[in-house]
UniProtKB/TrEMBL annotation, chains A, B:
Principal subcellular localization: membrane
Cofactors required: Mg(2+)
Pfam families: H_PPase
PANTHER family assigned: K(+)-INSENSITIVE PYROPHOSPHATE-ENERGIZED PROTON PUMP
Name of the molecule in the record: Putative K(+)-stimulated pyrophosphate-energized sodium pump
Matching InterPro entries: PPase-energised_H-pump
Gene: hppA
The EC number(s) this enzyme carries: 7.2.3.1
Record family assignment: Belongs to the H(+)-translocating pyrophosphatase (TC 3.A.10) family. K(+)-stimulated subfamily.
Keyword tags: Cell inner membrane, Cell membrane, Ion transport, Magnesium, Membrane, Potassium, Sodium, Sodium transport, Translocase, Transmembrane, Transmembrane helix, Transport
Mechanisms controlling activity: Requires K(+) for maximal activity.
Organism, scientific name: Marinitoga piezophila (strain DSM 14283 / JCM 11233 / KA3)
Top-level taxonomy: Bacteria, Thermotogati, Thermotogota, Thermotogae, Petrotogales
Top-level enzyme category: translocase
Amino acid sequence: MTILNLSGIVFGLVGIVFTIFLTFKVLENSPGNEKMQKISGAIQTGARAFLISEYKILYVIVGIIFILLGLTNGWMMALAFFLGATLSVLSGFFGMSIATKTNTRTAQGAIHSLSNGLKIAFNGGAIMGMTVASLGLFGLGLVFYLTNGDTISMSGYAMGASLVALFARVGGGIFTKAADVGADLVGKTEAGIPEDDPRNPAVIADNVGDNVGDVAGMGADLYESFVGSIFSASALGVILFSEKGATFPFIVVSIGIISAIIGILVFNFNLKDKENVDPSKALHFGMYIANILTLIGVFFLSLIFLKTLKPFYVIFLGMVVGMLIGSITEYYTAKEPVKHLAKSAVSGAAPLLINGMAVGMESTAIPVILISLATIVSYNLLGLFGIALAGVGMLATLGITLAIDAYGPIADNAGGIAQMAELEPYVRERTDALDAVGNTTAAIGKGFAIGSAALTALALFASYTKVVNLEIIDLAKSQVFIGALVGGMLPFLFSSMAMKAVGDAAEIMVEEVRRQFREIVGLMEGKADPDYSSCVAIATKGALKKMVLPSLLAVFMPIIMFFILGKEAVAGMLVGTTVSGVMLAIFMANSGGAWDNAKKYIETGEFGGKGSFAHKAAVIGDTVGDPFKDTAGPAINILIKLMSIVSIVVIPILIKIFQ
Amino acid sequence: MTILNLSGIVFGLVGIVFTIFLTFKVLENSPGNEKMQKISGAIQTGARAFLISEYKILYVIVGIIFILLGLTNGWMMALAFFLGATLSVLSGFFGMSIATKTNTRTAQGAIHSLSNGLKIAFNGGAIMGMTVASLGLFGLGLVFYLTNGDTISMSGYAMGASLVALFARVGGGIFTKAADVGADLVGKTEAGIPEDDPRNPAVIADNVGDNVGDVAGMGADLYESFVGSIFSASALGVILFSEKGATFPFIVVSIGIISAIIGILVFNFNLKDKENVDPSKALHFGMYIANILTLIGVFFLSLIFLKTLKPFYVIFLGMVVGMLIGSITEYYTAKEPVKHLAKSAVSGAAPLLINGMAVGMESTAIPVILISLATIVSYNLLGLFGIALAGVGMLATLGITLAIDAYGPIADNAGGIAQMAELEPYVRERTDALDAVGNTTAAIGKGFAIGSAALTALALFASYTKVVNLEIIDLAKSQVFIGALVGGMLPFLFSSMAMKAVGDAAEIMVEEVRRQFREIVGLMEGKADPDYSSCVAIATKGALKKMVLPSLLAVFMPIIMFFILGKEAVAGMLVGTTVSGVMLAIFMANSGGAWDNAKKYIETGEFGGKGSFAHKAAVIGDTVGDPFKDTAGPAINILIKLMSIVSIVVIPILIKIFQ
């Protein structure tokens, strides 16, 4: 044990201290007038209430698993599991609380200038990003240090992170899209009132959804990815470089955290006392700084610590591939294909939907080839450790990439508040501009997330084969093939459950919104207030009721498969789930993104603009895309990894007990 | 070589003779009045013209492959390939020609009585079914006999069948859905005229599409499945039971053909001189007779010829699993889920689309479990031969199951002719009743098709590993994993191409139909005729231009993968394609089916009936489902098998040349 084994704890704490400092800076800004604060308060109350109800259900399951793990595999691993889950919950809750406090401050800041709004929104996102990265590194670093790099305990930590992530993504995803679909269907399509109109009874639920789904859900998601990639790299690194290999990923991520802090500071310094800035340039600049600094750090680290530049090459490759996947994602969801897609809306909703699905399906091709390329090259350089390390490379600067991701919903919410609080139209224009930039820059973050998910899944699969002593997983055996077939089916079944939950909850929401428009006298004239809370309650109920079953699917399927067809079939199942899951996740995310932007493109006045036949078709496309891109799609990435981690943790225990 | 090796040739010829007899019987019926004949003639001309253009392109590719195979692997295999392709083309062309002659006779028959219409439509379908089964058995039997059971030559035959099938499915599927979507979008949605209204310029193209897609395409598809399953069973049977094992599948299918003939005769006998019958009962009865007779025959064959009942068990299991998958398919596309789906149309197109995709995704679960069950049990009984044989069991009575499948589009077309020729409304009601029954009974046929595709794909995969001498396909190797990942992507890319082709061609069609409504004076008042031929030309052009690339994908991907990552990666790729392809195919087919029937359910008067808000939403759902269920979905099954057969045929040649 060298002092370097403390790096996770130390730099995790550095990140935490910086986050607290940043939080105070952000909260210094004015939260705006009374009406804005009232609206923001309502969003906050709804979001917190939902998260607390969600955590209550979650902790029943966490508690059961904690006890089972403790009894069968010792309490150290059980504690690691509990810590992994709890730090995820904390980072989601804290990050989201700050985000809900930042949105009104962003709206207020945008009154003064675009750059002011940009700075506040970005820093709000940075708090989320840094919280997730710091707590993730700190927690896993703590387990690593205390257990002397025990892989089993770390896998428990990763399992806790994955379990919370799946619940948060599924629950938050159902909530946000039930509210969004419900609000849009009646508000925009039937009543013809604009987005975020305070007369829409579902408008608060919609904004709450942005926070619990897009902020808290995404935070838990990336916490999971981050932890999963470090864990798998550390577990595989020890095989190749013994102790140094196990420590290496922690140091890489520590460099990433410091680089992210510098990137965030540079961003803020650049904006100081400036009235007008190009938000896209500013965001990109901060991110590039962080990535370049990380690469420089990793270069010297590889050379000095591991005496080879191969880890540097692999991490560099991971970053490049992540950025390329991001560019492809951006191309399919924001460039030519979207314009072509928007044109098909002129022929109606059906061609738009058909073509949108075609775009999403096509968009799987190049990312898969890039991932394959990254896999081959890094495998040839450093074996399985290389594959895991490429995944770490994609997430090393998470503190700032997630900042840019989380900045989007904050700007979106700020726009909602500006609208509802009836601020001057130019404020909304500014927040819209901020939001638009966020959508594009977020594409790179998505690229990192997709790429790292696939590589981490592969690394976790390899770890599974090691912990259950499988030298060979022979596809020519019928049980392995069947495992792959059943595994391939699971992402479809899982998506079906998630989408049905959104569809069902949205239907109840639509009825409720219609009822309020019908029954509350003076609502459309703005003389009476709608009942926001009943819509929040519908989304909450729908989400909580429907999130449990799909999440348990991930936990139980590896166990069931093990009992029926054995450990080799479980390996087949993990591959099947990865293969069909990666495709389905990319397809759903990008179809949804393309529809969203096709609608936005039409709203700029193309093909008849707002209110035209094409626009109506585009609204349908956007609505269908909502559960694609924000509920089922992103959750599949977690499903894949959670199944792998459950297999790593549970199957060895079952083998011990039953064989 | 025993006399039994001739069984394929002999019983194939018996089937052909019976088919010719049946054809004369069907053509004896009156083709109806002059107007009906004129319409039927227009459909026939369009359909034949399309097929001939399609075959011209196809034969360029067939010719190139023929020469390449001949030069590298001997002319016997090349000839087998050519024969496999040509008999497929012939059966598609002949079957479709009869179908287009039967539709007007069905409409005419329905004037007299429901049972009359039923008989003619069924016999028309039976001609298709018997043509496909007889020519398939005869051709493969001929190759088997001439080459003394040479697996390589038979694989050439199967490759010819698969290649044609993919072209026919993709080309026909694009044609039919471009026409259908185009006709519906403007006709039903914008102009508000009913289905099959002669004022709709795309109406002839729509009816041509039913024939080239649903009849000729489906015929080639099942010819391929039939040939593929017999080939793989024969190739694997020889390993277990030597010569007898190779012959066994041919005899099973011969029994199936005789049983189908008896089933068809019993059906006709039952309807003799009856005015009113329950069409569903009559169709089911014929099919059950055929299946029971086959089982009895196989029971004695197993006992006497192979001295074990295991093959009987496996075939029995295959039939039961096929029927169960059929029932599940029917449940998801016609029962409770469809009613629930129809209800969501009340909230709009978006919830309907979301829920419809959820239904399709969910519907993958039980079929996959049933297929897994069939695989395990038959593998335990007879090894890989058992898996292939279970697939043969599902298709043994193809002569009659395909009859029921092909009967659907004939009844559908008859309805179109009744409408366009302005026959009395009761005629249309009768043809609609026939069509409705066809949709349900066809579910069982679909179950057989899905089940056998998965099992045959598995058997072909096993054959591939044998011909390239792969004892083990180790998923823990990164190139195998990458093969699986890239393979899993292909069905998505392929579907994307197919759907985009439909979307693009439909858009051009929509513009053309709108133009005609706008520019042809008196069209809507029925005083002027539309220009049908321009719409047929658009669909033809769209289909021919876009069918080549996706089809070549299947041919070239195994070759490319072999050169980059080797033969084990190709095995990984085949598994990846099977895993994601089976799911995608079931998902697309059943989502499409569910939307179709949800629309029909609303049209019975539920949730506001025709013209209501819910109905408009349901029409959008149906339109989106069209390329799902009739273009991309069914073609994926062929893609999976064609890739396997190309690998079986081409990779050993490449190994010989380059290693």
